[in-house]
Specification:
two-stranded antiparallel ribbon, 2% strand, mainly alpha, Four Helix Bundle (Hemerythrin (Met), subunit A), 167 residues
């Protein structure tokens, strides 16, 4: 609720700040049918997890299992960056501090993954990836979403990307 209020306040401030600019700008087209102008969409935690984290989690596994260490390092950096963005976008979820959850559940396995990637060690990678996946599921349990169960992909959901190493 506080986040919605903060977003509404920020939106109002942005609207006020933009008033002088808007007076000089060309007028927008008429409101869509029904007479109500659309408002910006704010992603939910589920939206962010499904669009930012889950694909990167899968791509990280696919790159590591293909022993494409350059791509695996990139995927690891991308998932870290996505978590950092989520922490900024939604600092609390279900009353829990998202940053602390990420620090406890995601950072240690991501550090282990980075080590395995640097060492190009498939066994260490697999163990660290399993820890990352367990961290995902532990976080879901903590947030009362035990029905959201993440696992290692057994096939690529990305038929338009080649995960094999090109030499």
């Amino acid at each position: 609720m506080k986040i919605r209020i903060a977003l509404a306040a920020a939106s109002s401030l942005a609207a006020i700040a933009g008033t002088s600019h808007a007076q000089n700008a060309p007028q927008p087209a008429a409101a869509p049918a029904g007479g109500v102008a659309s408002s910006p969409y704010v992603m939910t935690m589920g939206d962010m997890m499904n669009t930012l984290i889950q694909p990167r989690h899968a791509k990280l596994a696919l790159a590591g299992h293909a022993e494409n260490w350059t791509l695996a390092a990139y995927a690891s950096a991308e998932i870290r960056q996505a978590f950092a963005g989520i922490v900024k976008a939604q600092p609390k979820f279900a009353g829990m501090p998202v940053g602390e959850l990420v620090d406890v559940a995601m950072v240690p396995p991501l550090n282990a993954l980075d080590t395995a990637i640097k060492q190009q060690d498939t066994q260490k990678f697999t163990a660290a990836y399993d820890q990352l996946t367990q961290g995902c599921n532990a976080c879901h349990m903590e947030l009362n979403h035990p029905y959201v169960v993440i696992r290692t992909p057994d096939a690529s959901a990305f038929p338009n990307q080649d995960f094999s190493l090109k030499r």
